[in-house]
Please model this.
Amino acid sequence: MRKFWLLPGLLVLSVACLGCGGGDEKEGEKADAGGKGKPADNAAADNAAAGKTDDFPAPGRPAKIGVDSSYVLPEAVFAVVVHPSQVLKSPLISGNPMLAGNVAQFKSELGIDPDTIEQVVISGGPPEDPTAGAPVTIVARFSSPHKGKEMLEAAVKKDNPDGEVEEVAYADKVYYRAKKMEPPTDAADEDDPFGGPGFGPPQPKLPCVYFPDDKTAVMAEEEPLKRVLDAKEPVKSPLTDQMAKLDVSGDLAGVLVMNDQLREMAKSSGGPKTDTVLDDLPQDLQHAVLSASLSPKIMVQTTLTLEETPTAKEVDGAIKKSVQEGVADIKKQLAEMDKAPADDPFIGMIKPMLQEAQKIVSGISSRQSGPNVTIELTGLDDVNLEALGPGIMMMMMGGMMGGGGPPGGDFGPPGADFPPPADDAEGAEEVIVEEEKESDQ
Model:
């Protein structure tokens, strides 16, 4: 059963964490690493070489290849491209009252219409120095002029009504940051609940923001932002090379480029083992590309590029086998649950989740071409994502406790993996006997 829990990870491998100008590219054009449009080199052929089918990533939409990498840092290893205006049209969002309410609140509090955000590009990587700021940049491209500083002031005052935004001149440019709220030094009293040493008002949560023009916003922590402002020309790196080839016609796209630091992190993570070639995947992987759309139907595709073709064949075979085993395991679990009492609360919580997981795993397929392994996930439109909540919580708890899935690799009732109380009782009796012997001596 543990192998089943690896499959979702494979599908989102290129989204490790959360260039602008993609919104202005014409159909049939692609961007080079510097963000300048140029004629596409047969986008259909590029898609075929990457293992894409006619349905991925966005059936019926014109191909759009490449994304601007102007604000990518040299150490960045991942990039995620999201099209909020397209995502909001998905029934998955518009049909969810809670999400629709969040969008409305975002619009009323910040004065930003999410429908005007054409594209968001998030890029970065793990910091070499854990104490340094995260090397991540976020670039938002709007379809109409944004409100600049006024937009930031609304965001700051959301956290603290007294919050302010200040201008900072740097490298012949101007960026904005939230003004730090200094704590008072006098003693606290009834009129000043934040008074006294060590206390202070809530600090605004806002990154530094640079506006290259009235339709673009670049966000980052101060040190990374200064580095991108210092850059005389766009970065050239393995990541920007992949960004120039990225198909961004879907609702979401991403690319992850492996390096020695990521491989070492994967090696030391201590995750669950499958005893297959998949255990060595981070060491063999060169890069991974993700494409996803939420409308008109939900579709997810990840293409893994391995170091060698023989390895890709092994990985493809291991994925197919894992899917088969996952389907069989879930079917077995559901059959066992059918025999349990109908009023069992644990079964009542887990069974709906397993039924939805069965749909997801059954929709996973893979194929191999040269060093590429493409994994596709379809049929998600019929999945009740809310029913998966308990399973997601179990995976999160397992991750926090050092595990990679359900305790023991099965969906047994709570406590099933612990020794029976009788064993503990016997152990307690042995300790008591030993203590009595020592006291007699």
Remarks:
- Residues 154 and 219 are 16 Å apart (CA to CA).
